[in-house]
Amino acid sequence: MPEKQDRFLCSICIPTYNRADLLRETLTRLTREHSFLEKKVEVVISNNASTDHTDPVCREFQQKYPDQVKYIGLKEGIDPHFNFQNAMNHGSGKFIKLNTDSNVFDEGQLDKFIGLLEQFQDEADLVFPLCFPKRPEEFIRIENCDELLKYASFHFTSINSFCVKRETYLALEDPFRAWKINFPHVDMAFRILQTGKKAVIFNHIVYFVQRILYNSQRNHAEIFGHNYILLLDSYVKQGEIRRKTFQKEKRLVLFQYIIPYHFDFFHQYNEPLKPRPFWPHTDYYRKDWFFYAALVWIAFYWFTSRVIPIHQMLGWIKRNIFRIR
After folding, report:
1. Positions of the chain with pLDDT lower than 50, given as ranges
2. Most buried in the list 207, 254, 299, 321, measured by CB within 10 Å?
């Protein structure tokens, strides 16, 4: 059960499964930051019945930092979304932040995040640590769902960007109600903003990204082209998101996320390279002119990626040499 008093400013909640070595790197980086050593941060790990050496890795850090590393090892596996929830439910900080086991704040960035969180802890109930290098603002205040979508776009769908005041999270009825469409945290954010609570985007927060290959069964067209758009459309119908903002987001997510990740023309993300069905999950796009422009773009890249080997070479170089940290 969640604790009644805030023991820390922030609980970093990490759901994990069979990524022991990635998790070790993430925990190593977290626990050497000043804000962790100053006991402003705790780490909560929920292990979804891993079959590798995740358990001893977790216990090693728990023994080293018994007051700040909380470990929950599940004996039977559950849906990954409820593993997220399990981690959050055990956080005791004033804020609880979701964090993947493979991505972590770059050096010094956790301290920067905690400094901003201290500054805005009484003003905001939601915080989104993101990085938009072309925007000069260190932070952006958000007052409603439309503003969040406008300024953060699909980038805030990453669980690494979700941080909420614990008392606000605990007040939500059925917080993970949208788990079947993969975006319970996005739904929670919109629901909280609907109540008049405020949010802040912390810009220029940089992450260290450990490369992992996406599961070839992951259907980006279904998850983003249908499920994500379905969720947004429900808030458009409630009057929380403007139609203009919604249409812009549809274009952005199609060209900047779905096509690159789903088809993986440069062989960066998927293995084996067998995209899942695309057309059956595009019903929200079929009345939009830009969707048919996208089909031409897909056909062009599909052809050239098989005829001109330079595409594969460039993908290999980007994937293995010029990794973004």
Report:
1. 1-4, 323-325
2. 254
The half-sphere exposure of 53 on its side-chain side, counting CA atoms within 13 A, is: 6
Q: Sheet of 139-142: strands edge to edge?
A: 69-73, 41-47, 8-16, 93-98, 163-165, 126-129, 199-202, 139-142
Please state the domain count of the chain.
Answer: 2
One domain for residues 97 and 19? yes
Closest CA to 237 of 125, 153, 142, 145: 145
C-beta separation of 150 from 245 below 8 A: yes
Which residue intervals of the chain are DSSP H helices? 20-31, 34-37, 54-64, 80-89, 109-120, 145-152, 166-171, 184-194, 220, 229-237, 243-253, 259-263, 289-307, 310-320
Give the Cβ contact number of residue 244 at 10 Å: 10
Tokens of 107: 């050096």
The residues with which 83 forms a beta bridge, in sequence order, are none
Residues 146 and 282 in one domain: no
Look at residue 316 in the predicted model and tell me its pLDDT.
66
CA neighbor of 246 nearest in space, from 278, 285, 281: 285
Asked if 95 and 119 count as a contact pair (C-beta separation under 8 A), the reply is no
Determine how many CB atoms are found less than 10 A away from the CB of residue 4: 6
How far apart CA 102 and CA 256 sit, in angstroms, is: 22
- Record the tokens describing residue 305, joined without a space: 């990626």
